Amino acid sequence: MSITTTAAAFEALYGAPPDGVWAAPGRVNLIGEYTDFNDGFVLPLALPHTTVAAVSRRDDGVLRLHSADAGGGIVQLSVDSPAPLSGGGWAAYPAGVVRALREAGHPVTGADVHLTSTVPTGAGLSSSAALEVAVALALDELFGLGLSRPELARLAQRAENAFVGVPCGVMDQMAAACAVAGHALHLDTRDLSYRQVPFDPAREGLRLLVVDTRVKHALGDGAYAERRAGCEAGARALGARALRDVSAVRLPEALARLTDATVRRYVRHVVTDNARVERTIALLDAGDVRAVGPVLTEGHASLRDDLRVSCPELDLVVGTAVAAGALGARMTGGGFGGSAVVLVDADRADAVATAVTGAFAGAGYAAPGIFPAVPSAGARRL
Ligand code: ADP
Ligand code: MG
Question: Cα dihedral sign for 36, 69, 134, 31?
Fold first, then answer.
C-alpha cells in the first residue's frame, strides 16, 4: 500500500492531507504457541503485509475513524466517551488504543484516522495487532509521548483485552512493534525482554511458506479462554507462578501430580512447546535451519493432540506438506482455522504448494492462499 495512495484517500475523506503515515506488519509465529499467556517464549516474525494508518492529530476531543477494508463510512466518537466499545465492530480496535493511552495518562486529545491493509483478516496473521500498533505508533509520535516499543505493544494488547474483549497475549503486538527484517523475535513474555535472532530462509536455500486455510478462526468463541483457564489451573495445581516455571526435564513428575486429564494435556503442550522454542533458537544460532523442520512438526502434533486447537484443514496442510517433502510444518496462531507454516527446500516449494492445493481440492475445501513469509520490518513511519 503506497504512502501516496493512502495519504490521498485520507485527504479525500477529511479534506486535508494527514500529518503522517505509519505502517505495522502482520506476523507468523515460527514456534511457541499458547505459551504467551503462560509467561513463556515465542518466536514470531513480521510479514511484508502491513496495515497502513494515515493520521492527523486533533485537539477537540473528537476521534474520526475510517477503514478502506471495512464497510461503511467514517465512525465518529468522543475520546471522553466513558463506555467501552463492545459487541463487535472494527472501530473498537483503534478506539481501544486511544482509550488505553488515555487511561494510562497520556494526553491524546483526538485524531482523524484512515486505515488500509494488506494483512488478511481472521487468517491467524494478526491483522488486529497490525492495526493497533500502527495507530499506537502514530499517536505516540503525533502527541510526543515518547513510549518505547514494548510499552506501545502492552497498550495495544490492553486495547484488545479491555475494549475489544479478546483475551489475547502480547506476542502479536510485540512482533508488530519490535520485529526487524531478516530476523525472528525471541520474546520472553514474562518481562518482554527480547532478542533478534537472525532468520533468513532464502539465504539457506529454504522457504517458509504460509498456508492460509481460509477457515476463519474465531478466538472469541470461548475455546481460547478455556485453554487459558486450564493452563492457569495447571500452574496453580503445581504451585508454579506460571507454566513457564515448570521444567521440561521434570515434566513427567509434574504431570503425575495433576489429576485432571484435560489440564494435564494443556500443561504438557505448554511446557514442551516452550522447550521447542529454545531448541529452535539453538538450531538457528548454530546455523542449522533445516533441522528446525521436525521441531515444527512435533509442535503441530502437540497442538493437535494435547491442546486440541487444530482443525482438519490445518492437519491436512501439515500432513500433505510433510508427505510431499517439506522439512516440517505446523499450524500457527490461535488455531481452529487460520494459517500454517511450512519449512521447505526452495526447489521443493512449488511441488509442496501444488500438493497442498491438490489435497484441498480433493477434500472439497476452498483453495488455500499460499505465499512465502519473508521476515520483514516492524512498525515504522513511512
Ligand atoms: P487476526 O488478528 O488473526 O487477523 P482477529 O479476529 O484478531 O484476526 O482480528 C480481525 C479483526 O480486526 C477484523 O474482524 C476487524 O474487526 C479488525 N481489523 C483488522 N484489520 C482491519 C482493517 N484494515 N480495517 C478494519 N478493521 C480491521
Ligand atoms: Mg488478532
Answer: positive
Cell (9 digits) for 180: 526487524
- pLDDT tens-digit profile of 176-231? 999 999 999 999 999 999 999 999 999 999 999 999 999 986 654 688 889 999 99
Catalytic status, residue 172: yes
Cα-based distances in Å from 312 to 45, 120, 358, 364: 25, 21, 15, 12
Rounded-to-integer distance, Cα 308 and Cα 306, Å: 6
Reading phi first (left if > 0) and then psi (alpha if -120 to 50, else beta), residue 89 is in: left
pLDDT band at 85 (very low <50, low <70, confident <90, very high): low
pTM: 0.94
CATH architecture of 200-372: 2-Layer Sandwich (3.30)
Q: What CATH number does the domain located at 3-197 have?
A: 3.30.230.10
**232 Cα: distance to centroid of ligand 1 (angstroms):** 27
**Any atom of ligand 1 within 6 Å of the Cβ of 337:** no
